[in-house]
Structures are given as C-alpha cells and as structure tokens.
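The protein record minuted underneath.
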Amino acid sequence: MNIALIGYGKMGKMIEQIARASGHNITAVVDPAAGVSAKDDKTRIYKTIAEANLDSADAAIEFTQPDTAAANIIALTEKKIPAVIGTTGWHEKMNEVKKAVEKSGSSILWASNFSIGVNMFYRIAWYAARLADKFPEYDVGGFEFHHNKKMDSPSGTAKVLAEGVLSRMDRKKKIVWETINRKPEADELHFPSLRLGSVPGTHSLFFDSSADTIEITHTARSREGFASGAVQAAAWLCSEKRCGVFTIDDMMKDIFGELG
C-alpha cells in the first residue's frame, strides 16, 4: 500500500516507521512547515495538499491540528484519496465533510483513538457495564490520567469510554467530568481527569461494592499503538471499494463480528 502522510510531527514520523516496517511505502508527505523537497528517492515533502502530487497514493493518513483538519479532509476527498483521520476537535464541521465525501464518492475513516488495544478495552469495559447494571450494589466510575503537555480534558478516549458505559447502563444517566464538592447522585457517572509529568495515557473504569472492586485499565506505553492502528485502518479502508464516512467501530465490527 502506498501511503501519503498529512502531518509530519511525532505521530507522522511514528506512522512512517510502522508503515515501512509493515511493508508499506510512504510516497508523499505534506507538512505546512516544509517547502517541496525530497526525503529520499521515493518520498517528496510538500507544504500543502493542493500542491502535492498524490497520484500514487492508495490512502492518506492525517494527523494535524483541529483548525486545519476539515480543510485537509475536503482536499483529500476532492483528490478521491481514501483518508484515515486521526486529528480530533474538528467534528463541528462533520456535516460539511460528509457533504464533500458524498459529492466526490470518496471515503474517510475517523476515530478519537486508533489504538487496537484501546478499542479492545472499550468493548471489555462496555460489556462489563452491561453486567454491572444488573447489580445495583456495584457503583461505577472512572478517571483518566495523562502527561502535563496534553491540551484537552477530558480526553477523547475518556469521552468515548464513558459515553459507551452510559448507553449500556439504565441506572447511569449523566457523566460528571469535573471535580464535585458534594455527594454524587446515584445516576451520575463520575469520570475526572488528572494531568501530571510524563504519564502515558491511562484510562480506568471501576465497579465497586462493599465486598470488592473490579478495575479495568488501559495504559498506553507510547504512540506506537495509535500509529499501528491508523496503518491498519488505512489497509481496511482500501481492502475493498468503500464510499462514505466510517469510524473505527466499522472496522472493529468487521473484525470482531457481533462483539464489535
């Protein structure tokens, strides 16, 4: 598979490393900080998608910034290049993006977290939530823990996790993200955040009773899991002719079947 990288920061470089190790080719890189130049004999670096030669790309993987992501996605759809989108924070423009995808007949796959481990963790936690909902003596809550360079709180992963728990439990009706200086209500799912040092992304969900505690935790050791999942998503998107807007859940359902 020939891949164009849109964004060449830490994630872009990690994706390049994972993709090459998996036998894929990086045929173009788009990075706003660069002018047109050659990385090697096969790869060119461009400043914008508009000026980039992406003719040989089977797919693009986009990890940039929220304020540029929607424009990048639309530019890729106009070139009819299947695109995997790892940038978060642009979803208020989803309708605009969907219209562009439909008009061009192209495809995109987006996710708040491409880690295969995280997506397995979601499903384990959500199934546990269904079980716990039958036993009111088990209260449910969680937290997420990240390094102090992370700019958003709660994390996108925490939002997906907690919202998934809520949709699978009748007795939990709302999520409380902030610190509360009161007794939580029985129908509240408390899920605060902590930012500290160089801590890797950690998300935990707890089911607690007076008799015992069940804890389900995912800890990311590096960006490798996110990069590997993004490359796998690109391969899935290109594995057959797909048109439209997909999420990582579509790929997971394809892999896990009814467990997805």
Summary: Residues 19 and 72 are 21 Å apart (CA to CA).
